[in-house]
Write a structure and sequence with these properties.
- The protein is an alpha/beta fold and about 350 residues long.
- Helix content is about 20%, strand content about 25%.
- The chain contains nine helices and 17 strands.
Length: about 350
């Protein structure tokens, strides 16, 4: 499909630089067979049915943004995928100043050697020493806010909490599964009281989620692989919910993509552990999910293509035009949509 079909104009002031406080006071646009409905996230228990199940991603964002020096050259690195105990694949700023085997000093006793430049321009960084890389990143790294936020303000102490979900447990993501940022313990309790269950899976979100689609046709775009896991007990729960007539609602496109990666043609979900690079565009037949809660996405992005596949391109164009006209806040710290095909 032509990527231009997924373009739209977004006023700069619609990009949220801070999340709503409290988190569940964010607005929520419900898109279903009856049309568009303006709600807030705390209304979610009234929008779902007893027996439905929400699926959250329990990945935890690591301080994956690094600034260092290669000699006199300043080098920036954003880690995006672990390739070994001490090796991370990274997108590098000022990469033209790097050669294979160059050492980068990130300060605070943290250094790495750049090796194996990829076709996409990324580098493998092999971290020096014996300390776990996670400890090195805690010393030298920063929270990797999306470029559309980081380009407007500096990362600060508030982001250490704001950019983690209440489910964050498994360290390894370099971007938050942002739909789950809207949830609070009180909202989860209200959902439980309404008979709505929840489960978790793990998908370590990579920095590739921020990359624009540069190809003119979706067939020519290559997704970056991300590691995920659904254990057997969770897969069994999801299958049981659907077998008794409940709906599996993915919270976030990361949860959705992993469920769809684990789903068979007949809709049953199997245990899964490994990489996924699933790319969902209109024409895709969804097998494992019955709905999606997600934020509002970038023009020409793989995520806007995904929601258009779920709900139809024309309907999502209408929904996004409504959101823009009615002052909804966009992107990672913005408002939510609940999509029920």
């Amino acid at each position: 499909m032509n990527v231009d079909l997924f373009d739209f104009d977004l006023p700069n002031e619609r990009i949220a630089l801070r999340p709503a406080a409290p988190r569940d006071t964010a607005r929520m646009l419900v898109v279903d067979g009856a049309g568009l409905h303006d709600r807030v996230v705390s209304d979610l228990p009234d929008q779902l049915r007893a027996g439905d199940l929400l699926v959250f991603n329990d990945t935890r964002v690591i301080p994956a943004q690094l600034e260092g020096m290669r000699g006199q050259a300043r080098i920036g690195a954003t880690l995006h995928k672990r390739e070994g105990p001490r090796r991370w694949r990274a997108f590098v700023r000022n990469a033209k100043r790097l050669r294979d085997g160059d050492a980068i000093d990130f300060g605070h006793g943290v250094a790495a050697t750049a090796n194996a430049r990829g076709e996409d321009g990324s580098w493998a960084l092999d971290f020096h020493g014996d300390e776990p890389v996670e400890l090195l990143l805690e010393r030298a790294g920063q929270m990797p806010l999306p470029p559309y936020i980081a380009g407007k303000r500096a990362t600060d102490a508030r982001d250490q909490d704001d950019y983690q979900t209440m489910f964050a447990r498994e360290a390894g993501a370099v971007a938050a599964p942002t739909a789950a940022l809207h949830f609070t313990p009180d909202l989860l309790a209200a959902l439980a009281a309404a008979g709505v269950e929840h489960a978790t899976l793990t998908l370590h979100v990579g920095a590739g989620t921020f990359l624009p689609v540069k190809a003119e046709d979706t067939d020519d775009h290559r997704m970056h692989a991300e590691w995920g896991r659904i254990d057997a007990a969770t897969a069994d729960r999801l299958n049981a919910v659907r077998a008794r007539g409940g709906r599996v609602i993915a919270v976030g496109t990361t949860s959705l993509r992993l469920i769809e990666s684990a789903a068979h043609e007949d809709g049953t979900i199997q245990a899964f552990e490994g990489d996924t690079s699933i790319f969902i565009t209109p024409g895709y037949r969804f097998r494992g999910i019955d709905g999606l809660m997600t934020n509002f996405h970038l023009p020409r992005s793989t995520l806007f293509m995904l929601v258009s596949a779920l709900m139809g391109l024309e309907r999502m164009q209408t929904a996004y035009a409504h959101a823009i006209a009615n002052d909804y806040r966009f992107y990672s710290y913005g408002d939510a949509s609940l999509l029920l095909p």
